[in-house]
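PROTEIN DATA CARD
Card holder: Transporter
Chain length: 265
Origin: Novosphingobium clariflavum
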Amino acid sequence: MKIAAIVLSATALLPAAAAAQERSYCPDRPGIGTPACTMAPGQFSLELGLGDWTLERGEGQRQDSFTLGDALLRYGIADHAEVQVGWTMLGLARTRDSVSHTVDHRSGSGDMTLALRRNLINPDGSGFSLAVMPYVSLPVGRTPFGSGDWGAGMLVPVSYQLSDTWSLSSTSEFDAAVDEDGHGRHFAVAETVGATAAVSGSISVTAEYQILGDRDPAGHSVQHLAGLSLGWQPQDDLQLDLGANAGLDRDAADVEVYFGIARRF
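Structure generated from the sequence above:
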């Protein structure tokens, strides 16, 4: 009887699963925020940051950071849910001290992130869409790209499609972020809001703003960040993207420029 019930339940889900397969591709890249949509069940999305440069200046120092192979793998496990694995393959950092005139070079991989995104309304991202996304980070990376300890948090992405051209989005984030010294955790919170315009059927442009409050024991900070990104989907299952972020205060990184690719399977 239990086997029959399982078979009947699975059969009842088949039409919904088939309909989910037809949903439009909705990559996480590019941008600061996180979309509320999820992958259709049984489908993969491989999203790769091909290049990322970040500049940070302060207290007589300049640090240029480069990351290559910032990978995110997403897999749909249900019509409304997906699992994610993220990992930065290689990072290069160059720090120059203008006082001592020394230059420090470091390299290494980043931490690994495991996440579950559970959509609550409209998993394809149409209309009004809402999701929750708990995650945990595993300390497999090396300084300065690895945090040194495990972290965890929760994201709540929301999107609202105003028309075929315009949509609004927000991402609320609550983190048990790793302390700057790599031991222990502290509370951090962020809010990201954005507006996306569909320039054509395959090109979209997104403008975003983020405020981040960080209560690290080494020093509390509030960061403000602005971002502009572009995504181009020449095919239904393929997207190319590029973007730039600019720090609006002393605590935020001065500038970040990146580009990447996303592919659905």
